[in-house]
Write a structure and sequence with these properties.
The chain has 250 residues and is of the alpha+beta class. The chain is built from nine helices and ten strands. The strands form two sheets. It has a seven-stranded mixed beta sheet with strand order 5-6-7-8-9-4-10, sandwiched between helices. The chain has a three-stranded antiparallel beta sheet with strand order 1-3-2, with helices on one face.
């Protein structure tokens, strides 16, 4: 697909790692072009849109997801329930909320609006974790083919965001996802089984794994189609009860 928006990824800066382009909008066309090449937006309030393609890339292979003893206990005993796309806006709001030792958030209003549009088009999705009827945590991201690009997660109860990630890993082990993109390495993600992959290898994996959705992406990017997208079949596959994840994850 011709891409007038972004330069080749090898032009990305080494410092700051992965900065590839500055400016542009957050239209669904530009976002889908970006994700199909492994590029994502990340910027703060009062900054232009910054586009990134870091090297190395942090990824999580579903079969490599690690369940600690404490997470295992939470999955078995805390009576969490899981849903998909039942409250996308609230999950984004939870991820955008200011956290301790954090000056602000990169999930600014224009980002929220952009991903809500992708959600309406069938590309952005949320996993919610509920406890006693209240939202306890969750995550959201973008899916293309067999790749889930994780954007952010939040937790209001013990291990609730990890439970959401466990749900995503379970879907991967059931064959719906080949890889979960974690973007940038962190100690927290590494403890859950994430590792790094060099950019060329990630781009090769990506090109093969997203093919199932590229006809739909083409319709939006090249022809401007804005009709609501189909709901991916994995959205109805996740068990409601978190403890039912255990058999597929161990």
């Amino acid at each position: 697909m011709p891409d007038p928006d972004f330069p080749p990824s090898h032009h990305a800066l080494q410092e700051p790692n992965g900065l590839l382009a500055i400016g542009g909008d957050l239209s669904p066309q530009r976002l889908l072009r970006a994700y199909s090449r492994g590029i994502f937006p990340w910027f703060s309030a009062n900054e232009p849109v910054l586009w990134w393609s870091p090297d190395p890339r942090a990824i999580l292979i579903p079969n490599e997801f690690k369940i600690s003893k404490s997470l295992s206990k939470s999955l078995k005993n805390r009576r969490y329930e899981l849903t998909v796309n039942s409250d996308f806006k609230s999950v984004m709001a939870g991820c955008a909320a200011k956290r301790q030792h954090q000056d602000g958030t990169w999930i600014v209003p224009e980002m929220m609006a952009a991903y809500e549009t992708l959600h309406d088009l069938g590309f952005a999705h949320s996993i919610e974790v509920w406890l006693n009827g209240g939202l306890a945590g969750g995550l959201y991201g973008v899916s293309l083919g067999r790749v889930f690009f994780g954007e952010s997660m939040f937790s209001l109860q013990r291990d609730s965001s990890k439970t959401a990630l466990a749900g995503l890993a379970w879907l991967g082990r059931m064959g719906y996802f080949e890889v979960i993109d974690c973007q940038v390495e962190s100690a927290h993600l590494t403890s859950l089984g994430a590792r790094t992959m060099d950019r060329p290898a990630f781009e090769r994996l990506l090109a093969d794994a997203i093919t199932g959705d590229m006809d739909r992406v083409y319709q939006i990017v090249e022809k401007g189609e804005q009709a609501p997208g189909r709901v991916p079949n994995w959205c109805g596959a996740l068990p409601l009860q978190a403890h039912d994840l255990m058999e597929g994850l161990l």
